[in-house]
Amino acid sequence: PIEDIEKSADLHWNNMLQSMRIWLSYTTSHRLIEALNELYAYLKQSHKDNGLLDKGYHRFSHSLEVADLAFVTAIKKGYPYEAVLEMFVAGLLHDYDPRKPYQAPKVINTIHHLRNDSRILEIVNNAGIDMERIILLIRGTDFPMKEEQSGAIESGIKMIEKQNPGIAQRLREEVKFLGLIDKAATYIHLNITPQESELRVRELAQEIGIEAKVMLVGTPKFFKDFLEKDVDELIALLGEAYEMQWHMIRQHFVDTANYIKEQAERNATSSPIRESPINVNGPVTASLFNPNNT
């Protein structure tokens, strides 16, 4: 029921805010927490109005999970106050793109909405946050990364560097981490079971427009090509519980992919009309790199 989904989101949010209250100094916490609660309520209602609270890979809980992991990562890295807050808010807003269910959000749309939504701009300003810094971080979640986004990121960093000498290296790291967290959250966040992770991937297939079994068979290759190289650095930072979660969920997808392939082979050999084997590299890779899907 949608009420249960909403209650679950509220519980997750309250737990996140409790961690933030512990991190914040008492003198600054009240005003900021009030602004963040307003932002959360506004985003939740937007997702609810568009049927996105519980549908699709990019459902509302995904944004909460990315924000949660971005906050923890920034704290573990020892980032200053402003950077921690920017990472958190960028995670919360990175998929803000009001749309129909099972349509994937696009970074270019998100940037447009964030620059033109007066209510979000008001809340972010009240929290003392620079929206252009948030947009800079969100550009890093573009996947696959387009050349124009890479150029915009570098231009933005150079402009900030002029006012804040020595900040460029940290900004590039923040952009990198938020992009990695966005790709990895469904497979490392501690709130997600292997079964929930699989459900999200099935719904990602629906967003992209390919068969769920093809997406599931291709997921281990996605891990190998786009996650395994960098995710170890992230989970080493986050802690052992996240490492265990990653290995458990990754193994679930490996086992699921092998089962689907074995069943396809068995059906092909027992059928008088031999079926074509599942193509792991074609549809999944082509869909992920279709610019219309990002």
* Count of β-strands: 0
Please indicate the percent range of residues in DSSP E strands (runs of 2 or more).
under 5%
Question: What is the typical, i.e. mean, pLDDT?
Answer: 92
Q: With helices defined by DSSP (H or I, 4 residues minimum), what is the helix count?
A: 13
Tell me about the largest β-sheet. none
Q: Could you list the spans in which at least 5 consecutive residues all have pLDDT below 50?
A: none
Query: What is the succession of H and E elements?
Result: HHHHHHHHHHHHH
Radius of gyration, CA atoms, in whole angstroms = 20 Å
- Secondary-structure class: mainly alpha
What share of residues is helical? over 70%
Question: Termini separation (Å)?
Answer: 29 Å
Shape: globular
What does this molecule look like?
This protein has 294 residues and is mainly α. The protein contains 13 helices and no strands. α8 crosses α9 (168-188). The longest helix has 31 residues, at 240-270. It is globular.
Secondary structure layout plus pairing:
Elements: H1 2-23, H2 26-49, H3 60-77, H4 81-93, H5 107-116, H6 118-126, H7 131-139, H8 147-163, H9 168-188, H10 194-208, H11 212-238, H12 240-270, H13 282-288
Helix pairs in contact: 1-2, 1-3, 2-6, 3-4, 3-9, 4-7, 5-7, 7-8, 7-9, 8-9, 9-11, 10-11, 11-12
Q: Which key features would you list for this structure?
A:
294 residues, mainly alpha
